[in-house]
């Protein structure tokens, strides 16, 4: 059941929840992430912060294998993502789906259990109970039967969080979980994140509100196409680093990356990272 | 009804095609790929022509094969254009559709001029010629329908997740590319099989019309699939029967018109999503607001009349108070009367006991909201009336209870007027 602490053996050696090495991602010739090296510790609330177009969502998607990097690799709990899928929960941006889809809140949450269910098996009473308890955890159990377009923005965000809870993951990747939600929902999400942390789980969230970073998170990743800084909030979340993240345009880097990608465009396959090989 | 052999073939074939198209159309519509089927159908035409040119026969096997290959090439071309250029999906579909169809028409014209003698009838693929359906074709349609229903049933949850949230499906390890390929292939097969019956130009309607109509009636994907299958199959059957019983009615277009009729009705009257429903709902709200406003106006008159609500309110006071016509006012008063909230008297009207209690409810909401705005949001008291005019019609009893609690069960509004207390029920 979600909410129970995990009873797995503690790792003998401290392993990073996520390790990113030399990661470069581009959409066509537009560079989005440039040479990212990153290790994120387990059991912490981690914010990814940076201006619009800094590549925050892309970093999450690269970790999840949803976009192919030009170079570099990602490991999740010391293994390729494909082997760690069942350890990872994902909360996409709310705007990424059509909320007029013919389904209700409970059904969306149940989608978090499909990975476990496997082929051909239909969700049954047990899955229903699990999904309901996940809705309960985010405080909207009474909305289980409601069509998803009839939910407010904050309620839709809670449905997505409940779906991730249903994944019963060790690591949660969340794309702007606080975006466009009301104050009550914001408090509820924050309480939930702290519960997850207490249970030893790791949360990595794209966050856009600089005012609350220090209050909500333990660890921060400052990103603006390149990695500006990453570490405990107290050490890294400094005015100087913020200026580096938000001030100053990276014109030379952008220009050079574009030239590089144009020269590689002839044979992109040669430079693409494939599978879990290193 | 006594049907000829051909008519029975057409009836079964059109129903099976409609059912299959309805189911697959749901996925196309939900994935915003409604026009993909249209492109595939148009792309299949040159394939049919090439199939004929290679074999010089109108046997279905080479023609189907040609259409199938051309349709798949068409869909792959669309994918290639989207992936490797900045051209968006709608433009790519339009390009492929017109280029392939152009080639098809050129080949068709060329074939008509060939001295072969057996080429007449190929142009039936443009608008369909259901009467040419043979038992063999019906068997193919039957197999196709079974496959589509089976795949949809077995992979229901996988396909649902793919359509709703592809990234999440991908991240949780679903074989999204394979599922998409499966859906596209099934779509191509249905389009190609349906060409003979409905034709290149109209086949897309058998895909998206039943799906769009079904969506109006339900908020569940499973129900939508079943409804679309029924609407598609039903339109196919009715269309086939109509064209069999009325001379000179083309089967394909009549099937499409039947489905369109269902769609139009669905767009109009479906609960919640239908236009008529929306109109009735709006009228219901407007009438309630008028009733509540009249109740409130009668109440405030009595309040100014030193709290003597037993005196009749003169019609001249109510008239012109809110700039509404005399007819509207008479109608509103009539509706309050039929609810037992108001009694008409000579040259005026009088609130009944129940009417007074209902009016107090509206006034309570209005004044509580005014107080809430001035106290909690610190708005000046002369700025809150307009907002309260709206909120008095929207607040629920739970909202009122919450407001009373937050404000500490207040006695008076910001203007010093009393907030009517709740009466014991």
Describe the structure.
The complex is a heterodimer of chains A (278) and B (425). Chain A is of the alpha/beta class and 278 residues long. In chain A, 37% of the residues lie in helices and 21% in strands. Chain A contains twelve helices and nine strands. In chain A, the strands form two sheets. A six-stranded mixed beta sheet of chain A has the order 5-6-7-3-8-9, with helices on both faces. In chain A, α7 links the parallel β6 (171-175) and β7. In chain A, α5 (125-137) packs across α6 (153-166). Chain A is globular. By secondary structure, chain B is mainly alpha-helical. Chain B folds into two domains: 5-270, ABC transporter involved in vitamin B12 uptake, BtuC; 277-351, Orthogonal Bundle (Arc Repressor Mutant, subunit A). Chain B is built from 18 helices and three strands. Chain B has helices spanning 5-30, 36-55, 60-84, 89-113, 124-127, 135-154, 156-164, 166-171, 176-198, 203-217, 221-245, 251-269, 275-304, 315-318, 326-338, 353-376, 385-391, 397-406; strands spanning 313-314, 342-345, 348-351. Chain B has a three-stranded antiparallel beta sheet with strand order 1-3-2. The model of chain B has no long low-confidence stretch (mean pLDDT 90).
Quick structural overview:
The complex is a heterodimer of chains A (278) and B (425). By secondary structure, chain A is an alpha/beta fold. Chain A is 37% helix and 21% strand.
Key features?
heterodimer, A: 278 residues, alpha/beta, 3-stranded antiparallel beta sheet, disordered N terminus, B: 425 residues, mainly alpha, ABC transporter involved in vitamin B12 uptake, BtuC, Arc Repressor Mutant, subunit A, 18 helices, elongated
Between the first and last Cα atoms of chain B, what is the distance in angstroms?
Answer: 64 Å
Average pLDDT of chain A works out at 86
How many strands of chain B?
3
Number of strands of chain A: 9
The major sheet of chain A is characterized as: 6 strands, mixed
SSE order of chain A, one letter for each helix or strand: EEEHEHEHHHHEHEHEEHHHH
Name the CATH homologous superfamily of the largest domain in chain B: ABC transporter involved in vitamin B12 uptake, BtuC
User: Portion of residues in helices of chain B?
Assistant: over 70%
Low-confidence sequence ranges of chain A: 1-5, 266-278
What is the C-alpha radius of gyration of chain B, as a whole number of Å?
Answer: 32 Å
- Count of discrete domains of chain B: 2
CATH topology type of the largest domain in chain B = ABC transporter involved in vitamin B12 uptake, BtuC
> What's the N-to-C terminus distance of chain A?
36 Å
